[in-house]
Amino acid sequence: MSIDELYARAGVDGRRLRKAVSLLSDGxxxxxxxxxxxxxxxxxxxxxxxxxxxxxxxDQHVRIPTExxxxxxxxxxxxxxxxxxxxxxxxxxxxxxGIIARAxxxxxxxxxxxxxxxxxxxxxxxxxxxxWLPGSRxxxxxxxxxxxxxxxxxxxxxxxxxxxxxxxxxxxxxxQDLGVTTRWADLRLGLPxxxxxxxxxxxxxxxxxxxxxxxxxxxxxxxxxxxxxGRVLLAYGASERTxxxxxxxxxxxxxxxxxxxxxxxxxxxxxxxxxxxxxxDLYVLRPTTKSWPAVASRVDRLATAIYTQGPQAVESxxxxxxxxxxxxxxxxxxxxxxxxxPGVPRVRLSTWLAKPYAxxxxxxxxxxxxxxxxxxRLVLAARDAEVRVFGTTSPVRLPPAxxxxxxxxxxxxxxxxxxxxxxxxxxELGLTKNQARARIPAWAGAxxxxxxxxxxxxxxxxxxxxxxxxxxxxxEA
Length: 477
Hints:
Elements: H1 3-10, H2 15-24, E1 30-31, H3 32-39, H4 43-51, E2 56-58, E3 61-63, H5 69-72, H6 90-102, H7 117-130, E4 137-141, H8 147-154, E5 159-164, H9 167-175, E6 181-184, E7 201-204, H10 210-222, E8 231-236, H11 243-255, E9 258-269, E10 279-287, H12 291-298, E11 331-334, E12 346-347, H13 349-354, E13 363-367, H14 375-380, E14 386-390, H15 404-411, H16 417-429, H17 433-437, H18 453-457, H19 459-468
Parallel strand pairs: 4-5, 4-7, 5-6, 7-8, 11-12, 11-13, 13-14
Antiparallel strand pairs: 1-3, 2-3, 8-10, 9-10
Helix pairs in contact: 2-3, 6-7, 7-8, 10-11, 15-16
């Protein structure tokens, strides 16, 4: 096949091919990944193009030979104007590049692919160009890309909260000391109580499956306090070869009764995700009056298999439930067969985390397949009951509780940490409530179940410092 035949087959979408040819004929050396990202075109399409071009090679780099450039050189301007590129400060991009480079590596089982430093800076700039941020609140529904930090660097007047399943990311964000509030959440089990109705805007770059996009956007909607003027920004990309996949995702958004207020094509660029051109569009989604009943009726029925790979991928087979053996629970928590112990009450995992279970139980059996990150919180929610976890070999490590105040906090895991901590200081030291409150760090304004793991494991040490009267800010990092 010749280059002209490729152009003819591409039709009106052939601009992306001509853009790639323009790059390869500009005299510079290019890697395949760079051409994919610059053109926002799938790896398969660029590979097909390269097979018909007379390329010269140097290690992993290619270009059209100088003597043949005149046969291929085409001047192609940017396909769609970027509304904020002219506002990008290279020094901020450089700082974000350093922050991203030191961050924990992505996890393929969570569909992590890192956005480029320039992308997260441009996200922050677009938020400021499109919305009024002074005094506003931004909820980041998942934040492996560290958009939260870029927003705080550029718009320190805005409050930012991150909810994420990856405790490593939450710890790293706190280490940067940029004033971002962090909360742990497995969004399949619900949004943290302190994040519900908290934000004016939400932003998410979710797993690119219809269920993943639907779930993360629904949680973003639950996090809005302004139901009339709030927005959810969504990064989502698909290959130009698979429009039906994108259509399924748009159906998931339509099911939530959302208005596509704006779509910025190829706004997001990534180091990876070459199957979709290392790029994703940026959607600005506005809720309607029908969005809220749609969320209420659909969000808890969305599938837990939301990822594209790993044990919770959409293609993964459902594992058989484990045997209880001789264990006789008086409460079943989680994904158990309907015909198992029909006389024993059961509760959903999301309900178990959302509120204390009213029944008096002494033995609890938990089955949470594919939800290993949630296991410490699921066990912590049991209070004083005996708990056995089935269906996993992962050890469940709970935070140490060597003192009465820490035990009080963890025993009331559904209540605010700060309240139990304050009551403990009043009881232990005879302080007034205001005196006790001054010794408690700001991050304690959450339940124990939504605290990141580094806060939970460091809780006893923080309590000890408060008993000694030390500055509670010492454990902020």
